[in-house]
Design a protein that fits this description.
By secondary structure, the protein is of the alpha+beta class. 34% of the residues lie in helices and 23% in strands.
């Protein structure tokens, strides 16, 4: 039998009056110290591969905590052996937990998905290297054609990086004075046109953020999708290993 931990809150938070149902229908209980507490439920087998229903039940508990108080959300899979072990973690990492709760108090996470208009330039205007990996080597092209190809390739790559940086800076400036924190995930090679950002903002400024993004999109060819608000998963890094 293991204890599945959902998140860290302050002792005396409004959650004490809530009846929360966790994974597999188990009640959520709290282990308190003087000023911190951890929400958990009993889980019979930590080796069970989680189903979508289990993950969604876990997420609902975290969301319920987040609705009424500051919470440091855990990722699914943080199992501890006993309430005594939970207490030990709370005491050992108390200063860090308190600082994080102070940062997250009254805040929500908002996600942005930005489809960049011009990240991928037209490749029709530059010479192509042979497509067949077993075909003629690059050296088989004329020296002039090969250098032209490489110049175009790196020029396009630099242009794409510049666009990503300019887009991030434009969003940051549009939300200047609103953002408490932010993180950006730059496009990967396999998905070179989508930029993902996570924003930490105060809950009461959610409407202002959305209206600011609408105005920004009207001035930009990029398409932007706003998601959330969510618990601030991307602004904490607590896992089972962190709790050991």
């Amino acid at each position: 039998m293991k204890l599945l931990v959902y998140g860290i809150v302050r002792s005396g938070s409004p959650v004490w009056n809530a009846l929360l149902t966790g994974v597999e229908g188990e009640d959520v209980s709290f282990v308190p110290t003087e000023d911190l507490a951890a929400g958990f439920s009993i889980h019979a087998d930590m080796c069970t591969t989680p189903t979508m229903e289990m993950v969604m039940a876990y997420a609902r508990v975290v969301a319920s905590l987040h609705e009424v108080c500051a919470v440091i959300p855990m990722r699914y899979g943080c199992f501890l052996d006993s309430e005594a072990q939970i207490l030990e973690v709370l005491k050992k990492r108390g200063p860090g937990f308190r600082a994080t709760l102070d940062k997250l108090d009254g805040c929500v996470e908002v996600g942005l998905r930005v489809w960049l208009h011009g990240t991928k330039g037209s490749s029709a205007k530059r010479p192509r290297l042979p497509a067949d990996r077993f075909g003629p080597p690059a050296a088989a092209l004329s020296g002039t054609a090969y250098l032209a190809h490489r110049k175009a390739y790196y020029g396009e790559k630099d242009s794409g990086l510049e666009e990503v940086s300019a887009t991030i800076e434009g969003i940051r400036q549009a939300l200047d004075g609103i953002l408490m924190d932010w993180k950006a995930e730059r496009p990967s090679a396999s998905d070179g046109r989508m930029l993902s950002l996570c924003l930490l903002i105060r809950r009461e400024e959610l409407g202002l953020v959305r209206s600011s993004i609408v105005r920004l999109q009207e001035e930009s060819p990029n398409k932007v999708l706003v998601t959330g608000p969510w618990p601030p998963y991307n602004f904490v890094s607590l896992t089972a290993e962190d709790a050991e």
